[in-house]
Design brief:
- The complex is a heterotrimer of chains A (324), B (306) and C (447).
- By secondary structure, chain A is mainly alpha-helical.
- Helix content of chain A is 60%, strand content 1%.
- Chain A has 14 helices and one strand.
- Chain B is of the alpha+beta class.
- In chain B, helix 2 crosses helix 3.
- Chain B starts with a helix and ends with a helix.
- Chain C is α/β, with parallel strands linked by helices.
- Chain C has a six-stranded mixed sheet, with helices on both faces. In chain C, strands 2-8-7-4 form a four-stranded antiparallel sheet, with no helix packed on it.
- In chain C, a hairpin with an 8-residue loop joins strand 5 and strand 6.
- The longest helix of chain C has 23 residues.
- The chains are: A mainly alpha (324), B alpha+beta (306), C alpha/beta (447).
- Chains in contact: A-B, A-C, B-C.
- Chains A and C meet through strand 1 and helix 1 of A and strand 15, strand 16, helix 9, helix 12 and helix 13 of C.
- Strand 1 of chain A pairs parallel with strand 15 of chain C, so a sheet runs across the interface.
C-alpha cells in the first residue's frame, strides 16, 4: 500500500483561524489609524512605528534564541503587534533610544519573563508605555502640534485631557468633529478615533474580538462622565459634550478596542469580559477626574489585568441544563 | 518634633498590640505535632513520588512516626539503608524489602516493528491507547510517547529516539512504580534488582497468537513455550500466548535465552551462554584466563555464592 | 431560525460531493465479519458456532443484558469463525465470520416493497419487536433503541424528536434516507409515537437541506402531530441535548440527567426507518445506508450496505483510496474515528466513510495557548475547554471533575476553532474517561 495512514482522535478538520492570522488581522485593523496619524504628523510617525516594531521583533527573537533557547515564534506576528501598539502609545518626537528601551521593557519584562505569548499577565505594550511614562515623564508628555491646517490651537503642546485638567477647555466650544478625525495632539495612534473605530468594525467582522470589552469600557466611561458632568455643568449640552470629550480624548478608543481586548490579559468568559470592561472604564474615569495624571487608560487596563485571574476563577459560564 | 514623637509612639503601640494578638492566636491555634515527623521527613527523599502509597513524603513520615509496626511501610525511592536509618531513629524494626527496578517489557524497536500508520494526535500514550492499537501492527507494545517519562520524578526513564522505546536507567530508578501506573499498556513491571543491573526478562507482553505477533514484530514472544521447558527453576510460565519469567524464581541461568526463537528474552549485563553448553566442563583449567572481562568475573563470583 | 442556545461553529459542510448521488445497493460481500459489540452496553452473546449454516436475518448474537442489542446475520452462508478480529482501530474484538452462500432470507421477513402504513400493536409489543430486531441509534452513538423507548417509571415522555439534522460535515446518509425513504420514515415516526404514547413529534432538519425539509413537509401534511422543524445550519445542531434545546427550548440537566428528564426522546432518522422495517416488515437491522465521500474520492456515493461488509469493498466501489497521505474516518470529520484497518466491517453505527487526503489528513503543529477564549465561546455545553484540557493533561482529575468535565459531549468545536491548533479535545476526552471511571469506582465502592 502506497498510502501513509494518519490517525488522530477527532476532530479531524480545523477552522481557518491561526494565531498568525489573528495577529495579522489586528495589525490590519490598526493600519487606517496609522495612515491618519502619518497624514496629521508627517513621516516621523512611520519612522517611530518602524523603530518600535523592529526592536520588539528583534528583542523577542534574541530572547527566544539565546536566553530561553526555545522554539522561535516571532513569525506569529505577536511581537510586531506589540511594537505597533507601543508606538501608538508614544508621542512623536521621542528620541529613538527611548523607543528602543520601551520595546525592551515591553518584550523582555512585559512578555518573555512570564513565558512568552499567552502567559503574560499584563499587556506588554502598556508595560513598556507606563515604564517610559514614569522613567521619562518630560519626553513622554511633550506632544508636537499636528501639521494640520485647521487645527484647534487651544490644545497645542498638551493633550486635550491635560488641557481639560488645567481647566483650559471650554466644553461648549469643542470641535468634536475635528477630534473624531484626528485633529488633536496626542500619542501617535490615539488621535484618529474614526480610523480606530473602522478597525474595530473589521475585527468584529473577522470575529477576532467580541464587542463586550470595548462597549463595556466606553459605555462605563460615558455614563461615568455624564454623571460627573451632571453635577458640574448646567446645560445638558455641556454634559453631553463632556461625556463625548472623554470618549474621544486620551486614547479611550485605542485602549478599549485594542489594548483592553488583548487575549492573554483579558477574561475568558463573556460575563467576565463585561465586568473587566466596566472596571477599566470606572478606574480610567477616576484617574482622569481625581488623579494626578491627566490620562488613566493605561493604568486602568494594567490594574484590571491584575484582576483577570480572579475574574477567571470566579466568573464561570452558566452551566448547560442548570436553572438559576 | 511632636509629629515625629507621635508617629514613633503610634507605631510602637501598634507593634505591641499586634504582637499580643499574634501571641494569643498562635496559642489558640497551636498544633501539637511530634517533632520527629519533621526529622523523618527530612530523611526521606522529599520527591513526593507516591511510591510508598501515601500522597507525599509528609504523610509517609507521619505514618512512620505514629505507627508502632512499620514493617508494611517502605519508601522504595530511599532504599533499604535510609529506611534502616529512619527505623533506628524511631527505635522501631526496619522494614525490609528486596530492591526492585522498573523494567520495560517491549523489544519492538522501530527496526523490528515497522510502523504502519502515523499518529497525529496529542503526544500522550494514554490518548493514543484509548483511541486505537498504535502506530505498529502490535496492539500491546510500547507506544513511545513517554507518559512514563512524564511520570518519573527521578529522571530515570527516557524514550530512546533510535528504538522508539522507553529505557530505564537502573542507577536512577527507585522503583517507586509511577511509570508502572502511567503506562496504559501495562508494559512496565517492577522486577527484582540483581547486582550490576543484570536482568533476564521476556521483552514482550503481546497476547496475540504467534502468527499475528510474527507479522507485526520481529522481536515478539510467540508463546511457543520452549523457554518454559528448559527452565530448571520453574520460573517461566506461558499464559495467553506470552511467556513470563518470575523474577523472584529466576536465577539468571540464561538457558532460556538460547532457546527463544525470536530473541524476545532480553538479557542485560550478562554474557550469553555458549551455544553448546555441553562442552563446558572441558576447559576448566583455562577458566581464569577466560575471565578477563569484569562482567565475566563478577559472574563467576555470583555463581560461587550460589 | 431555531438553534441551540450556547456556542457552536460553522464548518463548511462539504456535502456537495455525495449529496447528489442516489442510494445504490451495494453488491453482497463474499465474507462478512460481524462484531458482537456494535452498540453501547454489553456485547451480544454468540448464538452460532463454527460450521453452522445461517440465513439472512437469522439471530446470531443475543443481547447479553437489558443494555445490549441482538445481532443478526446480514447474509446467508456458513459461519467460518467466532474469534477475535481486529476492528477499524486495530483492536481485537469478538467477531463472527460468515462465508456467503447465496442470499436466502428468513421466511418470517416480509421482503415486499409495499408500504404498510397501519400499525395497531400495543406499545409494549412495538418495543419488543424493536428489541428483537437489534435496533440501535444509527447516528453513531449506537444506544439501544428499545432502552430509549422504555421510559423509566416516574418519568413521562412528552415529545418525540426525530434527528434528521446530520450536522456532521461530509455525511449525507441521513439526508438521502429522508429523501428516498421518507414514506417509511414517517410511518416509523407514527410507530415511535405510539410506542411512547406521545402526542407530538418533531422532525429536526438543518436548513442546508431545503429539499429534504420540503419533501418531509409534504409527507407529513396530512399527519396529525408531526411537524418538520427547519434548524439553523450550525454544528453541533444534531447533538442530542442541542437538538432538544433547539426544538423545545428545554435544557437537559447535566449528567446523569437524560433527555427523558425534560420529557424528550430523540431518535435518528435512519433509525426511524429501521424501526418501520422491524415493526411492519419484521426485518432486523442488517443493512444501512453508508456514505463514502471525500474531496479526492473519485465517485462519492451513498450505498445501502449489509452490515459486516469490509470497508475496503465500499472504498473500492467509490473509486479507491487516493494516492499519498490519507486519513480514513469511520463517520464524519468532527466526531468520526480514524481507522487503520480497512478490512474491518461496516457496523450499525457507521453512517459514513470520510476519506481525507493530502493536507487535510494531518493536523498542524500546536503552539502556545493565547487565551483567546474562542474555545469557551464555541463550547455548546458552556465549559472552559482550555482549562479542562490543561488540567487533564496534568492529571488533576478532582479539579476537572469539579469543573463539569463529564458534561462534555466531545463535539470537537473547541479544537476546531483553536487558533493555536492545540489538541484540546484529546486531553479533555482522556480526562472525561478517567473521571467517569472514578465516578463509577466510587459508586461501586458505595455499594
Amino acid at each position: 500500500m502506497a498510502n501513509k495512514f494518519f490517525v488522530s482522535p477527532s476532530p479531524h478538520i480545523h477552522g481557518e483561524q491561526t494565531t498568525q492570522k489573528i495577529m495579522a488581522d489586528v495589525i490590519i485593523a490598526l493600519l487606517p489609524a496609522l495612515c491618519v496619524s502619518i497624514a496629521v504628523y508627517g513621516w516621523g510617525v512611520a519612522l517611530l512605528t518602524a523603530i518600535a516594531v523592529a526592536s520588539c521583533v528583534l528583542f523577542e527573537y534574541l530572547i527566544q534564541k539565546f536566553v530561553i533557547k526555545g522554539p522561535l515564534t516571532v513569525c506569529n506576528l505577536s511581537a510586531a503587534l506589540t511594537g505597533l501598539l507601543l508606538a501608538f502609545n508614544l508621542p512623536l518626537g521621542l528620541p529613538w533610544w527611548i523607543v528602543v528601551i520601551g520595546s525592551f521593557v515591553a518584550i523582555a519584562v512585559g512578555k518573555m519573563t512570564f513565558g512568552g505569548l499567552g502567559k503574560n499577565p499584563f499587556n506588554p505594550a502598556l508595560v513598556g508605555r507606563v515604564f517610559l511614562l514614569i522613567a521619562y515623564p518630560a519626553q513622554m508628555t511633550s506632544f508636537p502640534a499636528p501639521k494640520f491646517e485647521g487645527f484647534v490651537d487651544s490644545f497645542s503642546g498638551a493633550t486635550a485631557l491635560s488641557a481639560a485638567k488645567g481647566g483650559m477647555v471650554d466644553f461648549g466650544a469643542i470641535d468634536m468633529f475635528g477630534m473624531f478625525n484626528g485633529a488633536m495632539a496626542g500619542s501617535v495612534g490615539e488621535i484618529a478615533t474614526l480610523a480606530l473605530l473602522l478597525g474595530f468594525g473589521y475585527l468584529l467582522w473577522r470575529k477576532v474580538i467580541t464587542w463586550h470589552i470595548p462597549v463595556a469600557v466606553l459605555g462605563t466611561m460615558a455614563v461615568f462622565a455624564a454623571i460627573y458632568g451632571a453635577f458640574s455643568f448646567d446645560t445638558p449640552h455641556l454634559v453631553l459634550n463632556f461625556s463625548a470629550f472623554h470618549l474621544l480624548a486620551g486614547g479611550a478608543v485605542l485602549g478599549a478596542v485594542y489594548m483592553a481586548t488583548d487575549y492573554a490579559t483579558s477574561p475568558m468568559t463573556t460575563r467576565g469580559m463585561v465586568i473587566y470592561g466596566i472596571g477599566i472604564g470606572a478606574i480610567t474615569m477616576c484617574i482622569r477626574l481625581w488623579g494626578s495624571y491627566p490620562e488613566g487608560m493605561s493604568f486602568a487596563i494594567l490594574i484590571m489585568n491584575s484582576v483577570v485571574p480572579l475574574i477567571n476563577k470566579y466568573v464561570k459560564p452558566k452551566r448547560f441544563g442548570v436553572k438559576k | 518634633m511632636n509629629v515625629l514623637l507621635f508617629t514613633v509612639l503610634t507605631l510602637c503601640v501598634l507593634g505591641v498590640l499586634a504582637a499580643v494578638v499574634l501571641y494569643f492566636v498562635a496559642q489558640k491555634f497551636k498544633v501539637e505535632e511530634d517533632p520527629r515527623i519533621d526529622e523523618v521527613e527530612k530523611m526521606l527523599p522529599c520527591a513526593n513520588c507516591g511510591g510508598c502509597g501515601f500522597a507525599g513524603c509528609r504523610s509517609m513520615a507521619e505514618a512512620l512516626v505514629k505507627k508502632d509496626d512499620i514493617s508494611a511501610l517502605y519508601c522504595p525511592a530511599a532504599g533499604a539503608e535510609v529506611m534502616k536509618c529512619i527505623a533506628d531513629f524511631l527505635g522501631k524494626a526496619a522494614p525490609v524489602k528486596e530492591a526492585r527496578v522498573a523494567t520495560v517489557r517491549c523489544g519492538g524497536t522501530c527496526e523490528k516493528r515497522p510502523r504502519t500508520n502515523s499518529f497525529d494526535g496529542a503526544k500522550s500514550c494514554a490518548v493514543a491507547a484509548s483511541l486505537y492499537a498504535g502506530e505498529t501492527g502490535c496492539s500491546y507494545g510500547c507506544l513511545g510517547y513517554g507518559d512514563c517519562v512524564t511520570a518519573c520524578k527521578f529522571d530515570a526513564i527516557h524514550i530512546n529516539p533510535e528504538t522508539g522505546l522507553a529505557e530505564v536507567d537502573a542507577e536512577k530508578c527507585t522503583s517507586c512504580g509511577a511509570c508502572v501506573t502511567a503506562c496504559p499498556k501495562g508494559i512496565i513491571e517492577l522486577r527484582k534488582k540483581w547486582p550490576k543491573q543484570r536482568a533476564i526478562f521476556v521483552s514482550c507482553v503481546s497476547k496475540d497468537k504467534g502468527a499475528v505477533v510474527m507479522k507485526a514484530c520481529k522481536a515478539g514472544c510467540i508463546g511457543c513455550g520452549k523457554c518454559a521447558k528448559v527452565c530448571e527453576f520453574g520460573a517461566i510460565t506461558v499464559e495467553n500466548n506470552v511467556a513470563y519469567i518470575d523474577s523472584d524464581k529466576c536465577r539468571l541461568c540464561r538457558k532460556c535465552v538460547n532457546e527463544c526463537p525470536t530473541g524476545s528474552i532480553t538479557m542485560i549485563g550478562l554474557a550469553p551462554l555458549p551455544k553448546e553448553p555441553k562442552v563446558a566442563p572441558a576447559p576448566k583449567a583455562e577458566a581464569p584466563k577466560v575471565e578477563v572481562t569484569p562482567t565475566a568475573k563478577a559472574e563467576s563470583v555470583e555463581n560461587e555464592k550460589k | 431560525m431555531k438553534t441551540f442556545p450556547i456556542g457552536g461553529i460553522h464548518p463548511s459542510d462539504n456535502k456537495q460531493w455525495s449529496k447528489g448521488s442516489a442510494i445504490e445497493v451495494m453488491a453482497l460481500p463474499d465474507v462478512v465479519t460481524i462484531p458482537l459489540g456494535q452498540h453501547i452496553g454489553a456485547p451480544a452473546v454468540a448464538k452460532v458456532a463454527k460450521g453452522d449454516k445461517v440465513l439472512t436475518g437469522q439471530l446470531i448474537g443475543e443481547a447479553a443484558s437489558f443494555m445490549s442489542a441482538n445481532i443478526h446475520s446480514p447474509i446467508s452462508g456458513t459461519v467460518t469463525a467466532v474469534d477475535m478480529q481486529p476492528n477499524g482501530q486495530g483492536l481485537r474484538q469478538m467477531m463472527i465470520t460468515i462465508k456467503r452462500e447465496g442470499d436466502e432470507w428468513m421466511e418470517s421477513i416480509d421482503r415486499s416493497e409495499e408500504l404498510v402504513k397501519e400499525c395497531s400493536l400495543e406499545p409494549q409489543e412495538i418495543i419488543e419487536r424493536i428489541k428483537a430486531a437489534g435496533i440501535v441509534g444509527m447516528g453513531g452513538a449506537t444506544f439501544p433503541t428499545h432502552v430509549k423507548l422504555s421510559v423509566p417509571p416516574g418519568k413521562k415522555a412528552e415529545v418525540l424528536i426525530i434527528n434528521g439534522v446530520e450536522c456532521e460535515p461530509y455525511l449525507t446518509s441521513d439526508y438521502r434516507t429522508m429523501l428516498e425513504y421518507g414514506e417509511r420514515m414517517v410511518v416509523g415516526v407514527k410507530i415511535l409515537k405510539r410506542a411512547l404514547g406521545v402526542e407530538k413529534a418533531y422532525i429536526g432538519v438543518e436548513n442546508n437541506k431545503p429539499d429534504a425539509i420540503a419533501h418531509l413537509k409534504e409527507l407529513v401534511a396530512d399527519e396529525q402531530g408531526i411537524e418538520v422543524v427547519a434548524l439553523k445550519t450550525q454544528y453541533p445542531q444534531g447533538g442530542e441535548k442541542q437538538l432538544i434545546a433547539a426544538v423545545t427550548g428545554r435544557e437537559v440537566p447535566p449528567p446523569p440527567g437524560l433527555p427523558i428528564d425534560v420529557g424528550a426522546v430523540v431518535c435518528n432518522a435512519s433509525t426511524t426507518v429501521a424501526v418501520y422495517d422491524a415493526v411492519q416488515k419484521n426485518k432486523p437491522l442488517i443493512e444501512r445506508v453508508v456514505t463514502v465521500t471525500g474531496k479526492q474520492v473519485a465517485s462519492p456515493k451513498n450505498m445501502l450496505t449489509r452490515m459486516g461488509t469490509p470497508i475496503t469493498a465500499l472504498v473500492e466501489v467509490a473509486g479507491g483510496l487516493p494516492e499519498g497521505d490519507v486519513k480514513v474516518l469511520n463517520g464524519g470529520p468532527m466526531m468520526g474515528r480514524a481507522m487503520v484497518n480497512l478490512a474491518s466491517p461496516v457496523t450499525k453505527g457507521c453512517s459514513g466513510i470520510t476519506i481525507l487526503s493530502g493536507a487535510e489528513a494531518s493536523r498542524s503543529a500546536a503552539s502556545a495557548c493565547i487565551k483567546c477564549a474562542k474555545c469557551v465561546s464555541v463550547c455548546p455545553m458552556a465549559l472552559e475547554p482550555y482549562y479542562l484540557s490543561k488540567l487533564s493533561r496534568k492529571g488533576a482529575w478532582d479539579v476537572v471533575e469539579a469543573h463539569n468535565i463529564t458534561d462534555c459531549i466531545e463535539c470537537g468545536s473547541c479544537q476546531y476553532t483553536c487558533p493555536a491548533s492545540l489538541p484540546l479535545l484529546d486531553y479533555i476526552r482522556l480526562g472525561k474517561q478517567t473521571v467517569m471511571g472514578r465516578i463509577r469506582a466510587r459508586a461501586a465502592a458505595k455499594k
